[in-house]
## 1
Amino acid sequence: MSAIRALAEELAARSDSDLRSLLSARPDLSLPPVPDFAALAARASTRASLQRALENLTEPQLQVLEAVLIAAEDTGGTGVDAATLGALLGGAEHPVLEPFLAQLTARALLQAPPVLQDGEPQDGEPNGRAPAGPSYVPVGALAEALGPYPAGLGRPLETLVRVLPGFGGQLVEAVDRVRSLGVALGPTPDPEAAARELSGAVGRPADWKLLLTAAPTGTTELLERLAGAPVGVVPAAARAGYRPGHAAAPVDWLLGHGLLAPLDVAHVELPRSVGRAVRGHRVAASLQAAPPDPGLRPVRPAVRDNAAHSALAETLRLVDALLSPGGPTPVATLRSGGVGVREVKRLTEALQVEPAGTPWLLELAAGAGLLGLDVDDSRWKPTGTAAAAAGDREALWLALAGGWLDLDRAPAMVGTKSPDGATINALAAEASRPDAPRVRRRVLDAAVELTAEHDGAAAAGVDAPSLTARLTWHQPRLRRRFERLVPGILAEAESLGLFGGGALTPIGELVQQDRLPEAAAAVREALPVPVSHFVVQADLTAVAPGYLDPAVARELLLLAAPEGRGPATTYRFSPASLRPALDAGQDAGSILAFLTRHSATELPQALSYLVEDTAARYGALRVGSAGSYLRTEDDAAVEALLADPRAAALGVVKLAPTVVAARAGADELTALLRDLGYTPAPEHPAASGGAPPPAPAPPSTASQAPSQALPAGPARTRRGPWSITEEEIAAQVDSLRAGARQAPDQAAGPECETLLGLETLRTAIRQRSPVRLGTADSQGNAVRQVLVPLSVSGGRVRVFDPVRQVEKVVSVHRVMDVEIIEGTSDG
Amino acid sequence: MADGPLIVQSDKTLLLEVDHPQADEARHAIAPFAELERAPEHVHSYRLTPLGLWNARAAGLDAEQVLDTLLTYSRFPVPHSLLIDIEDTMSRYGRLRLEKDTQHGLVLRTTDYPVLEEVLHARKIAPLLGPRIDGETVVVHSSQRGQLKQLLLKLGWPAEDLAGYVDGTPHPIALTEDGWSLRPYQKLAADSFFSGGSGVVVLPCGAGKTIVGAAAMATSQTTTLILVTNTVSARQWKDELLKRTSLTESDIGEYSGALKEVRPVTIATYQVLTTRRGGLYPHLELLDNNDWGLIVYDEVHLLPAPIFKMTADLQARRRLGLTATLVREDGREGEVFSLIGPKRYDAPWKDIESQGYIAPADCVEVRVDLPRDERVAYAMAEDGDKYRLCATSDTKSGVVEKLAAAHKGEQLLVIGQYLDQLDDLGERLNAPVIKGDTSVKERQRLFAAFRSGEISTLVVSKVANFSIDLPEASVAIQVSGSFGSRQEEAQRLGRLLRPKADGRAARFYTVVARDTLDQDFAAKRQRFLAEQGYAYRILDAAGLAG
């Protein structure tokens, strides 16, 4: 019977609560809902779903699962009992293993009790032991989902003989050499037998010892290196080849005795049986039932808070500087996407930050929706949200922290090389990591977990290695992802004040508990109170001793240029720095009044002199724009013009007793003067007939809110794309039960047909039996052939045509049906 | 950290609010490791530099104490990266030590094996080293001691020099404290220097650096070589030593362009030592052929580059550097650190002023309007002539006369750059002019007359910038300068800062032509003086009483 059918039956037999726990542990099984148990079983056996389930296994769960898979391959697909598993996992006791086996069964990754197939002859147990307790088999495509190197062990010799051309012949010779060392081996007429006999010998401790004693020195070290990662780089150039009777290097000796398989010119692989022997005839030295001890260093709370508070104040200051109206925005993008190096450099100089800090600030502000991409001119501009949060540090932090938690990008990847060798730019698509929000969430969870375990008055310093180790214990399949993302995430969290000096802060804890508003309140507590005064000095500087009230700061920025970076800002006055204020219509009196009002000390004479001197000399030349002008010797005419009510509409202003300028064009002014009874002459012949010179364009409204280019949040948040509610689970269980009542024993639906076909193919591959394969050719004609399938992977089946004696490849999607040919298999 | 006087910025500056009740305490706490950069009236700013931190390590401070000081006095949280950076930087000093080994002579020893490896693999350093003794020790060619220290500093691994000094030829020297006594800070400076071995003492102009030198000589009791900037300065050292110590005329020799005397205490000018003839330094033997027990460098911040080179070979002798500032216009602070030694004493300038040892100063900038024709001439002049044109305007002379009249009866100094202008002023004010071609004898005569009050007004060119002593000059008028150099400004002000008998404030006028380059330079000068904490006012020439 098919394994999928068996799984379907087993699922149907589960209680409702067991089903519920399965669906909540593997939510993708009912997203979207499945019609019946057969479909559920089929979906549970797909590679994608299995991989998702594997990602959520803890280290011990994965160890047990991998051990079951390896042991099951030993026994040719029959069940594995707990005692066998215990021996493979460093002697783990039954009570220790039991819960893990139960969890794996509950998640439909293992099946128990074993589903013995009809009439299958039971080969004797390899160790001659009777099965104790229930025995477990892995579900369908698990081997494929776990990859070719489960538990970090290489492929079995039997497989290697099949897939490596030429290795079979070498192995037969190698086995003869092994035999000559005194190892008792059965007859080895063909490569398969050689592989079987050699595997058996390696698996027997006494024979293994005999082999090792014959090996040259250095062999054990080499084997131990390869035991963790089975594929090693040994260039063919470094292999001298094994010549009996001559001293051989360890690599050559191992190759010559079939204990190492040459993959290609550069790589070798340690066969599974050898790897297990090196590990002490086990799969793993021990079962990692509990997470490893992180060995955290203590961090004084004062140090932690000092670091966190200074970092978050600095981040807020910089984001504020980035978004402020006089700041360096908008930010131009490259045609290829993202913000270019030159633009980043410009921002770095404007903000006076460490070069690495600029991309992070951009990513952070964009992620929080404070910077938005204006699609019209492809530039990033402050959004309405930014304007709303300006000056309110609590609101700003809230926006930043919330945005960061949901940010589906890895800002730390900016500046690194992408696989194609190009450097990744800030805000470019290459830094997108859809899994980042989940990893971020896990980092916070793990930090809380580690901090809680740490006892003592000091806080726990949770650095990237300890966090990665803990996260990897929880989800070993995601190790690479954690290693790549965690250091960056930690640095980002530090700059938001969630960590300080390497320890989780109270703010970080609140964020982990999703209590963002409370965290923001804690941030407000931590930030120094804004000051509204500054100290003015004779070197023409004003120093704000702390965070200057935004309203005061805005006004001061019109007068003086800021310098330095840190909690306090120094503003330097110069004739040039005073100009914006004078342009804005201020005069010496109002400037000095403002300075006196906010200065904590008496204004130095040198500064008053500078302000008065600059203001007095400002405007010696005056510039304006006008559409037309009138000059005359007759000031009465000017007065008459100004007295007319229509003059105001034309924007007429008197510049001097005999000179008037108007906003309106010369034609309109001429018409009005004619109406008043004068005969004005055009000053330029062109001015009378032609169109008036174009009126000055209205000042561009730089504050126009750019369109909000950021998409609305998806219904399932980025933090948990596979989250599922209790109601959805209940509805799914109900519909499954209803479907089961209607068609109790029908495995139907396209979803499971393909899988059934694939499963049959896999069975045939395992049994090396020919199949009758129905395929559709490129013209759509049905073709039926008798073929021997060799392997299935990546949507392709490699088959051997016994009639034409050739190998070929068939796409899985062309396969219509598969039938194992009777008599050669038990189907 | 509720309300400290210190604000630690992430750009490695420290802002100290001087009106804060804890300000003094904090100032003393940070002085050993932070360099005072600006000291305007309310908020002083200090800078943390690797050299400053290493100076602190040399003075026995560790990173823990520095961090603790920052955290104690800081008003706001201190950037964590800064703390880590400080710890890193400070831990680099002293991992390599130069020591005297009884068997192998001079050796470089480390407590940190990889550092030694790094150093041994540096291409420039390898040739300076001899055979390796063990994992942690390597022999150093003793002639390369100075160069090695220089290169190690460049690599970022400053070595602690514990190899000691040769004794030098003994010579009895004692202070004769009749009618005067060593001020407390001078004694402290001399003691700190001597216990540290070699190094630099930083004291403001007028605080009595010569006496610190004399005190060091009295402690050393050996033959001494004193290197000074010029001949006038050499004579002053000689006079001062005769007055303050038991040394007699026959003990002190002058080694300058004019005289070549080598005596137990020899005063040489930088210039004569750096004279080259045929690619060689003919006077180098003065350094090499005598067994000096102490070498004193006056005005270290002006030390010419060849002297550094010679100093590199003098590492076995005690070296004392005297200066008003560690800031060098050419940025060679690192060489001072590695070759002369770390800072051994630094008196906060304000402290000395408040103790009454130096006079407060009042700086006034007087702006004159150029007449129309001069403005046009200025506008049309070549760039190279512009400064001269505006600096030597005739209108300035009128202003100087007015100012001189206003300060009638006070000791007045007029300082300028351009000789024509100075001659003209000399005539108008009826005062003698001292310039480059005035003989040393004549200069000394005029200075003596000025000192005694015989002459009340003196016009001087830039020859007077360095190391002359005009105790009673209470008013200075600067009419032109060499493009706003910070050094020059400090020196000129130094002329005035010697304490006045009646405790009056010194007055320092600068006459500036409005809307010209002169004013741009004046802006720089203003910033510098205000940053030094001097009161600074600006007046219009038209507003002067007349």
## 2
Amino acid sequence: MDQVIIVSFVLSVMTASTPLLLAATGELVTEKSGVLNLGVEGMMLVGAIVGFATTVHTGSSLLGVLAALLAGMAMSLIFAILTLTFLANQVATGLALTIFGTGLSALVGASYVGTAVEALPRVLFGQDALVYLALVTLFVVAWFLRRSHRGLVLRAIGDSHDAAHAIGYPVILIRYLATLFGGAMCGLAGAYMSLAYATSWAENMTAGRGWIAVALVVFATWRPIWLLVGAYLFGGIMYGSLAIQAAGAINLFGYPLVVPSQLVSALPYLATIVVLVVISRDRARIRLNAPACLGRPFHAAG
Amino acid sequence: MTGQAETTKATGTTVPLLSLTGIVKQFPGCLANDRVDLTVLPGEIHALLGENGAGKSTLVKIIYGVLKPDAGEIRWQGEPIVVQNPNHARRLGIGMVFQHFSLFETLTVAENIALGLTDAADRKGLRTRIAEISRSYGLHLDPDKAVHDLSVGERQRIEIVRCLLQKPKLLIMDEPTSVLTPQEVERLFETLRRLAKEGCAILYISHKLEEIRALCERATIMRLGKVVAHCDPRQETAKRLAEMMIGTALKAASHQARGEANGGPRLEVKTLNLKSEQQFGTDLKNVSLAVKGGEILGIGGIAGNGQAELMAALSGEMLAASPNAIVIDGTHAGKLGPRERRALGGCFVPEERNGHGAVSGMSLSENAFLSGHIRRALARNGLIDSGKTAGFADDVIKSFDVRTTGPSAEARSLSGGNLQKFLVGREVKQSPSVLVVSQPTWGVDAGAAAAIHQALMDLADSGTAVVVISQDLDEIFALADRIAVIAEGKLSQAIPIGEASVEQIGLLMGGMHGTSGGRDVASA
């Protein structure tokens, strides 16, 4: 019996943390190249509805996931063109992208509310492929950034685009690629929400997970392993808060303590941020890992 | 100027490694290069001499492929070429050490060097090769340190090693010696001479005329975007070279004959211990010093021996453990922040011009306000008095001959020397009781350096206690009344400048005051 509870706990935590992990991994790569894309939430929502609609019409969840990935990339391409080619302000453009994505997904998704799809097929331990893809991608990204030369170039561009340009690296091209990778990962995260987590579409269904993903990247001080910790922490508290909500009240020394449900729903967000703020207070580590050119436009002189 | 004939003769006998003809580069509002010709022969050490804004940096950026010329021809080993980008330049065999280092702050030394090597094959066994090169050329480097914790001098070594790893045919050095000790300069020169003997030509940009005379065989002198002279620097005096470069006679900074400095110390540091906040920083150990009004104390030392921490401790960016560790004009200031110390009369010019001394993206006016608003009362009822602020900035610009379009120009639009003149001027004009300057003339041309030196001396003559932290010993010997040396976070006794010899100071720099040998000496 206990074993069953533990297994179900672990699996639920993995499920709850996967969309965060996917989106945060993508955002990490984007930010490491020096681009701050705050449109994660919008890209996730567009990925979610495009993946959902494609699955409904084709009956293939694989096509749905692919369509979500492309939709996320398309959204990030808009962002990249505006900020990297036309040098628009990255913060403002990212916020606009989120607002745009929220509105667009609600418009497209209006006719899909109430429709259900079959969940993504399970591949191992009752989990679908995206759960494992999220983990594998994270470790590949960690290895890529830490060990490979291309990863070093990416970090270098995020650190000082002027120096990278002076040495002769194509700053804008690499930032485009990093931004598109981020978009693709957000699209996948969205697909996971609609095709695996909820198996239905609801307006604004990501419920701020995109923002948590952005915060995770910062508080993990741009280190992939801490992303994992943060995402699983979020998933764990999410599971706990659902349990509390289901029970209706906490049993406190025999007295039922009724916690407002809004506060319980907010708990995972709150706790994740608090814990990560506490563990990321090391100034030297932030300086060592934060991309110095984050959010700064690059314009090659001459 | 017999150089013209000599050049023609020289190019007649050998195919030049590099020749530029009629290079023109126009920037908005300024003709940076006006039909510039330059010839570099294989294996020669060629000096490119000129004031800030003479167009030297623009020219070498064109050679290195960072900038594209508007007109003109570049020939490499006799073949006309267009240098597409720095990668292309490196493939041709051109290496460059930048004046404003092209380094990545958060990456380690080894990663920075790997980034400069575009060929994957070059990166095999990189760590051993870094170790080899740094040993054989005496350029000590720890491959695992992060760059942001390194001093300017250490950073430069990375750039040099990065170039040497590529076995260049032409090495461009943009002001390489500004932060090196005499011993380090001598070692660098040996490296460069050895490279030249091995057939690598060196294009050497510097304002230090004595160095050019000691090192270079030929010199091309630029002024306001044009080549004004060719010469053999070994045949000319430093004064003559300076005159060719500036176009007028150079005025040497003059020390007013000061009597005994009067009164008690205006700045006092008593057994200050401070743990560095940097990951690889140097902790300050029992640092004591006292400077009277009217006196200039020079603090020498090899880069990275605690200068950054001492500067931070004096300016209040790092607080001391006890209030009486630092005393400004009799007030215990050890636990006061920079604003309170400024209110007491302390003014500070940090080592980094861009980003620390000045906010690059803000106008000169705004930058003047940031440090001067307390002492010059530039704020009224909590609002910026923009008229008064612009007036203050304008006053600094005029009296320090800062070449710029006016107080509304962005700080980053100024060349290094001009921005430095502005920053020193901004503090001097606040008539401080104590002024602490770090590396006042790093990367600054002879004209601007002389102006800054004169301003510091005048300020001392008016009764201010001045501390100059510098790695340039010539500067300290020219400026200071007393000299102390910082090594591994410990400060030596201050010696009157008349009694100090370069050899003795060199030993102190190696940490020879009662402790084990300094790391740079030990590694040599």
